[in-house]
Amino acid sequence: MVLRKLALAAGLAAFALYLWGLLHVLGALLEAEDGGTDSSPLRPCRTTGWQYDKKVRSVTDYSLDFVPLRFVCETSDGGSYVADTVPGYVNPAVFALTLTALGSWVTALVVAPPGPRGVRGPGG
Q1: H helices of 34-79, where?
Q2: Global confidence as pTM
Q3: DSSP-assigned letter for residue 80
């Protein structure tokens, strides 16, 4: 029973943390789609000292990756780099919590397989 509760808790924590990272990615998407003054280069793609960085000034497009969560800036020369929109702890923590949830769930199934409770076998 403890392993099932651990699996549920780890799964819910992984889901909540994934949603937290997804909010960051969607916020960067909204910021990238916001045109007008000061929209080039894309705001999510800017780094410290971006005015002097040729890579940042050559950003032409972007893409989103959902596993792992990230905002990818694409440059005019065909290259790309990952912007710092998602906090660095989100993807490793989601991975670790997902593994914990799956491992606990499988272990709980092996240790105590689900079945009817309180039913006695023959002679019992």
Answers
A1: 54-57
A2: 0.80
A3: E
